[in-house]
Amino acid sequence: MRGEDHPAEEKLFHLLTAPWITEAVHASIRLGVFEELAGGPRSAADLALATGSDPAAIARLLRLLGAAGLLTEDGHTAALTSAGRLLTTGHERSLLPLARFYDDACTREPWRRLEHSLRTGEPSFERVFGSTVYEHLASAPQQLALFSDAMAVGGLPARDLAHFYDFSPVRHVTDVGGGDGSLLSAILAAHPHLGGRLVELPEVAERARRLLAGPVREGRCELTPGDFFAPLPPGSDVYVLCRVLHNWNDEECVRILRNCREAMAEDGRLLIVERVIGSDPGDLLPLLFDLHMMVVMGGCERSEAQYAALLGAAGLDLRGSVRLSLGLCALVAAPLGHKPAS
């Protein structure tokens, strides 16, 4: 009797053992396996010597990483695949900081207590650490650095917005809650005719100064300390909210969106970048991040219809969407024609 005679069992076994692959990847990162292979193919014996590991054990690890598609492995030497190279520091789209943060207690421990969130509807992060994620990170500099690096890398697909959305008729862009400035930096670099503004909390805006130093020096960009729960500066043709709304409940989202609407001109546009839950039940990434937001922040991912309803409550109309990579989507909104009552 062959395994393919029982596809349901095969599928379930793959699901149940998937965390073992993740553990193997994290252990490989901590040992430095991917970094050692960044310079070219190596034997298991060479890697064991370089990483202070057992040669036979490393050979078995390489065999698994090869089956997972991160390496090519022929029994003698191993080399990185395109996916494996994303776990090295030198790659321009490296996901290594994200992998390191997912291996940190800030991510691991809340997920281990998923049941608490399912029973209570509350983020298990607060049960684990006794504070919200931002309160905890403010008192843990090392984890804050991991988090900041991971968020910058996790936004890589969003930077593709600079090429997928038509900015040719736009003169000025405001990135609201734009973090380290990486998205705005990418947009300004791709479109030299644009001016830009980053609106962020003062301590976060300072971290963006390095990435946006060039546009600021050229007079094309300004850093404006601010809060998206307060009135926003007017004057931009396009406002951007990238991975902001999934942190907040519906009422808070409407407040943020209403502030954007109040700042927008009648012909302005709002771009919302989020993982949108679609009609395809096999599209796992938005669903996984929906639970991730629940256990860590108490937030959620939403469907396009749910975003349309939030936009309508804030005096905005959903006009279309642009698919990005890794489950991200840019929703394009415009004013309904009248500003909502406060």
List the main descriptive attributes of the protein structure presented here.
O-methyltransferase; globular; 342 residues; eight-stranded mixed β-sheet; 49% helix; S-adenosyl-L-methionine; alpha/beta; three-stranded antiparallel β-sheet; single chain; 3 domains; protein dimerization activity; methyltransferase; Rossmann fold; COMT-like; Arc Repressor Mutant, subunit A
Architecture overview:
By secondary structure, this protein is an alpha/beta fold. The chain has three domains: 3-85, Orthogonal Bundle (Arc Repressor Mutant, subunit A); 96-147, no CATH class; 155-335, Rossmann fold. The protein has 19 helices and eleven strands. It has helices at 7-31, 33-37, 44-51, 55-67, 82-85, 96-102, 105-112, 114-120, 124-129, 133-138, 141-154, 156-159, 161-164, 182-190, 202-208, 213-217, 250-263, 284-296, 304-313, and strands at 42-43, 71-73, 77-80, 172-176, 195-200, 221-225, 238-242, 269-277, 302-303, 316-323, 328-335. Strands 4, 5, 6, 7, 8, 9, 10 and 11 form an eight-stranded mixed beta sheet that branches. A three-stranded antiparallel beta sheet has the order 1-3-2. β10 (316-323) and β11 (328-335) form a beta hairpin. α3 crosses α4 (55-67). The longest helix has 25 residues, at 7-31. The protein is globular.
